[in-house]
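Teaching note: in complex prediction, the entire set of molecules is handled at once rather than each chain in isolation. The prompt given to students was simply: 'Predict the structure of this complex.' The entities are:
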Amino acid sequence: MYSRAYKSLVAIPPLVWVGAFLLLPYALMFVHSLWAVRESAIVHRWNLDNYKTLFTNPLYAEVLFRTMRIAASVTICSILLGYPLAYYLAFHAGRRKELLYQLVIVPLWVSYLVRGYAWKTILGSDGVLNGFLQYLHLTREPVGFFLYSPFAVVLMLTHIYTPFVFLPIYAALEHIPRPLIEASQDLGAGSLQTFWRVIFPLSMPGLLAGVTFAFVLSLGDFLAPLLVGGPSGTMIANVVQSLFGAAFDWPLGAAISVGILVITISLLFLSEFLEKRWVFK
Amino acid sequence: MSASPTNPPEQSAAEVAALLEIRNAAKRFGAVDVLKSISLNIASGEFLTLLGESGSGKTTLLRLIAGFEPPTAGEIWMGGERLDALPPYKRRVNTVFQNYALFPHLSARDNVAYGLRVKNTPASEISGRVEEALRMVKMQDFATYRPSKLSGGQQQRVALARALVNRPQLLLLDEPLSALDANLRKQMQSELKSLQREIGITFLFVTHDQEEAMALSDRIALLRDGALEQVASPREIYAHPATAYTAQFIGQTNLLRGEIRGSMATCDALRWPLEGSDGPVTFSLRPEAIRLCADGKLETNEVKFRAAVRQQFYGGSSELLEVECGKGQVLRVRIPARGPLTGEHDFVFSMADAIRVRE
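The expected output is the structure of the full assembly:
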């Protein structure tokens, strides 16, 4: 048994950390969202105008909608890549498993920024991809929409977040007891039936965690649209950044941030709720 | 009298209506021969037990039949069809797994219905058969429960129902009772046996527990290091073990090692007349074949010896003695319970009970 004093003592560092770096900033953000800007200065006048703007100005709704669309696309693409990969590694990779696993993880060691610039050099007008297509005489002049488009953002974010989707799915698949698969075959199910009736349902918690990672992380992403998005690939985080920067409208920026926070937290709760339904033990 | 491991007397009866024929099946993992050319027939409706220590290959043989492993050599036939070429899901064989392997995301009812659903059985037929199977194992009141909400014994019943609902020709049971506590195990043994009689499905049962094997089986196939040591009915295998290993593995025994010379068997202090060619011999003499001879009277063909009681283990209706007769030769003797016993006494056994076994 630990004494009360000891328990309080060890609780202090995490409490201070969470308070100073999480709760306090969120509180400041929320307070700012209720203030206003007058003649290039923030005035402490309590109002809900920022939220009104958020809901009435179609520009913000449009960006938010595009952001969700991009996040959804990234989620779908990374699952389409990550799930088969995880399945292969968990069930069929044999001795290559360890090596392949490391190869999936290795990109996470490379800086996000470096990977962003790499995509720029691949997708640009005089980039690797266009050069290759022209070399093959498939295109006569550089294809413009590769870079600075929602497509580029989805591509880059999919590249970045696929390992995050892969990992929880792989963990879930690895945890499926192998006798269950044998039992399914024994009862007359072929590979496809075994997958849909046993493996897939039992991998749901992992899939759900992967979906949550990919969607929530893409939703708040700011570097990918900045590097490869261009005007048509702008996402909500970029709007927030410009409101806090050049546009100097912290209260509106804060209001949008609160909006994103509400969406994100709702998603996390939803995911938590669904996961409880899908975890069996 | 003693049965040879590859061709016991019962085998010929089994061949008449053999459901499953294992012909020279072998399995090698890397450099290890887990199974060395096994040939075994299982008759339709039979309860056959594969008995052996861990690592003897009994589970591997079961997995060859279920189809989870391909044999390295040999063939397996069932009802005139080559079984080992079929994938597991095409075999009319179902398995009760050691740790049940129930699907955790499905209720007891859905677990039982699984095999019928994947084979596209009409829904109207499924519900009836599932209810029937659950009733058969007395689990109808737990149909909606997930496996995690069921006790080990209940999971065991669901696993049994899940396999039986498919009406397999052959049911494989891989140490299905090993995870249950002793009382529940006895109860499940008795239920298994009556269930098997009732439905008449052929059971191939794997266990390392010789008592369980004796209690349940029509025949026992004893495996040792990947080879069949002896295949016979429990009574036959107990009364006439073919080898010293069998004699020791099934029940308790005294192994007497000695020689025959001039129609006389000699094992240390024990001597009795026996026809046979000269040379070393081994006998198995069950502890209960030796009796205390209070009045010193001998029946014909009995061997008498004098021995000192060293240990006495009380076992309720009977007690086991460890007695020493000359030159430190220790024999175990089981006698009806009769109270504490010390000092030297006369013991006798019938020559016919000293069964000659191979080493």
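Point out the following to students. The mean pLDDT of chain A is 91. The domain at 50-278 of chain A is CATH 1.10.3720.10 (MetI-like fold).
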